[in-house]
């Protein structure tokens, strides 16, 4: 494990970690098949256990021991708090970052092969919501997560952090666009249940009482909800009964409620 102390924030060896607060810049060095950033020793350890390989580490001195068993041959750049903040653009309170190589994406058939409960996220662009939905999926028994092409990246730093690293333990992949996705999901034996507001929607508790053996829950954005094509592809429209003048929940909260009901 090469340990290299770096005192200059402009050092080119730290380029993977520069300006992490800017999503547009991250897309330049985190393309599909490229890199993603894991933050905190706990998250890095989960990525390591999932078989993901690090390209390098950026740590503050007091966190060096936390990554010693994870680095292998990857260089570990040790920096001061001030250098870490100057490079990344924010205070790195969790002390350890890793630039990780993205694994090859799994096929849809592989991800849902034995799944009885699948969460589908359509066009959720907020990384925090994506991370929270993955955490709910991991904690409440979903076997897989599928994300639409326009959905925020589950391996973006904020998504990974909010998920507490559970994006590494729940199998996931990108879903083809509708209507192409529907026959692929049905071939896998999945009943498509769309969470949406509709006059003919089935209350979640009623649906859960006689749930199909294999279910895929479709979740859309808070503003627009699921797309017309997603609703047309659904076998059942399901709603969470609400009160207090509230008509819906945040997508991550709704995912958790629905997953708990169908666990």
Q: What do you see in this structure?
A:
The chain is an alpha/beta fold. It has two domains: 3-101, 60s Ribosomal Protein L30, Chain: A; 108-262, 3-Layer(aba) Sandwich (Alpha/beta knot). 32% of the residues lie in helices and 20% in strands. The protein has helices spanning 23-29, 41-49, 64-67, 81-88, 108-112, 127-139, 157-162, 181-187, 204-209, 228-233, 251-262; strands at residues 3-5, 35-39, 54-60, 76-79, 96-101, 117-121, 144-147, 172-174, 191-195, 202-203, 215-219, 236-239. Helix 6 runs parallel beside helix 11 (251-262). The chain starts with a strand and ends with a helix. The model has no long low-confidence stretch (mean pLDDT 90). One of its GO terms (molecular function) is RNA methyltransferase activity. InterPro entries: Alpha/beta_knot_MTases (IPR029028), Ribosomal_eL30-like_sf (IPR029064), rRNA_Methyltransferase (IPR051259), SpoU_MeTrfase (IPR001537), tRNA_m1G_MTases_N (IPR029026). Residues 117-260 form the tRNA/rRNA methyltransferase SpoU type domain.
């Amino acid at each position: 494990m090469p340990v290299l102390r770096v005192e200059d924030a402009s050092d080119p060896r730290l380029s993977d970690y520069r300006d992490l607060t800017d999503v547009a810049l991250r897309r330049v060095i985190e393309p599909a098949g490229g890199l993603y950033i894991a933050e905190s020793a706990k998250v890095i350890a989960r990525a390591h256990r999932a078989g993901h390989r690090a390209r390098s580490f950026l740590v503050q001195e007091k966190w060096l021991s936390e990554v010693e068993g994870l680095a292998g041959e990857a260089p570990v750049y040790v920096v001061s708090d001030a250098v870490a903040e100057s490079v990344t653009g924010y205070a790195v309170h969790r002390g350890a970052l890793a630039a990780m190589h993205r694994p090859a994406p799994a096929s849809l058939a592989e991800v849902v092969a034995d799944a009885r409960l699948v969460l589908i996220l359509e066009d959720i662009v907020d990384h925090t919501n994506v991370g929270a939905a993955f955490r709910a999926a991991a904690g409440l028994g979903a076997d897989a997560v599928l994300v639409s092409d326009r959905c925020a990246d589950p391996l973006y730093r904020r998504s990974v952090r909010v998920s507490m690293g559970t994006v590494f333990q729940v199998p996931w992949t990108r879903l083809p666009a509708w209507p192409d996705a529907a026959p692929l999901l049905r071939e896998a034996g999945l009943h498509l249940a769309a969470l949406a507001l509709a006059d003919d929607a089935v209350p979640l508790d009623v649906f859960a009482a006689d749930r199909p053996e294999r279910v895929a829950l479709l979740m859309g954005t808070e503003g627009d909800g699921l797309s017309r094509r997603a609703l047309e592809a659904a076998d059942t429209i399901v709603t969470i009964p609400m009160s207090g003048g509230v008509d819906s929940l945040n997508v991550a909260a709704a995912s958790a409620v629905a997953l708990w009901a169908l666990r």
